[in-house]
Design brief:
Oligomer: single chain
Strand content: 15-25%
Distance between the termini: 47 Å
CATH superfamily of the domain at 1-143: CorA soluble domain-like
Number of helices: 11
Shape: rod-shaped
CATH architecture of the domain at 1-143: 2-Layer Sandwich
Mean pLDDT: 86
Order of helices and strands: HEEHEHHEEEEHHHHHHH
Length: 336
């Protein structure tokens, strides 16, 4: 599992990816951070969407002053490495969701921290996380819903984050099919076992990222109607359905991986058993002439066969017949 390692953007411009003022579902203007208070001074139903990427303490403190954010939520957003959760602070919410991207054939884990209130939506990305420009464009393309406020933007962010799991699931499904073909090709490969383990580890990471989202969405729908209005609940339920689909897909693949590991072990054990059977069969064939030769190697004085002129040839023929019969029996029993 890839570690969530901040890259620490060097300038505020790198940290602030968007700061946009919306009114009636339409973009009013892009704002400098210092103008946020002025834009929200008039209670006209407008709100500001701020997008940040790995901000430093000074930048978060600035936003805390602008939007009156709770200090505990700000502290969590700065440190990252938080569990997925929904926290209520007055009429505002603080959410932590885990995001994922495939990097270097492994899942890179990131976090998105979301501050949402009646007049603002702030997304703070850490680690492996795609920007939410596409989510904003989707909102702007649906002004009749976006005018309902920042909650529709929250829906777009959650839906975008969950939808990004589907390509990862599909990629790992294809990899699982490739590994299954390697398992049944009749040759043991240590690399196959390593791939199975790595894939199961990554799917477990993905499952731990996705599974808490179901409870979070239920909390948003049931306990926060002041933000998630009735008109938007159907959209949040749609995100919940996507979460269930991803969870079921990852659970199914994890079960298939466990079965693949068991099948691979069984095939290796069966292959080793066939090798042991073959060795035992050839050992039995070698044991018969060895036994007879050992009798005649004991140098007893009175052995009646020693005096016969054809005893040597008779003994060789008898051994040949006995070994041939034993070979036929072992061949029929598939020990050779």
């Amino acid at each position: 599992m890839s570690a969530l390692i901040p890259t620490h953007p060097s300038t505020r411009a790198d940290m602030v990816r968007a700061c946009i003022h919306y009114r009636d579902g339409k973009r009013v203007a892009e704002l400098p951070l210092d103008d946020i208070s002025d834009a929200l001074e008039v209670d006209d139903g407008s709100f500001v969407w701020v997008g940040l990427y790995e901000p430093d303490a000074d930048l978060l403190r600035k936003l805390q002053d602008e939007f009156c954010l709770h200090p505990l939520a700000v502290e969590d957003a700065l440190k990252a490495h938080q569990r997925p959760k929904v926290e209520a602070y007055g009429d505002a919410l603080f959410l932590v969701i885990h995001t994922a991207q495939t990097t270097d054939c492994h899942i890179g884990v990131g976090e998105t921290h979301v501050f949402v209130g009646p007049r603002y939506l702030i997304t703070v990305r850490h680690g492996a996380s795609l920007p939410y420009a596409a989510a904003r464009e989707r909102c702007e393309a649906n002004p009749e819903l976006f005018r309902l406020g920042a909650a529709f933007g929250l829906y777009a962010v959650l839906d975008y984050a969950v939808d990004n799991y589907f390509p990862i699931v599909e990629e790992y499904r294809k990899e699982l099919e490739t590994i299954e073909a390697d398992i049944f090709d009749g040759e043991f490969k240590r690399e196959t076992i390593r791939k199975l383990y790595d894939l199961k580890r990554d799917l477990t990471t993905l499952r731990l990222s996705v599974s808490p989202l179901g409870d979070m969405l239920n909390q948003l729908i049931r306990f926060h109607p002041h933000l998630v209005r009735d008109e938007l609940q159907v959209y949040f339920r749609d995100v919940y359905d996507h979460v269930v689909r991803v969870s079921e897909a990852t659970d199914t693949m994890r079960e298939m991986l466990s079965a693949a590991m068991s099948v691979n072990l069984s095939l290796v054990t069966a292959q080793q058993g066939e090798v042991v059977k073959s060795l035992a069969g050839w050992a039995a064939l070698l044991a018969l002439p060895t036994l007879v030769a050992s009798w005649y190697g004991m140098n007893f004085t009175h052995m009646p066969e020693l005096a016969g002129p054809y005893s040597y040839f008779i003994l060789i023929g008898a051994l040949g017949v006995a070994c041939g019969a034993l070979f036929a029996v072992l061949k029929r029993a598939r020990w050779i």
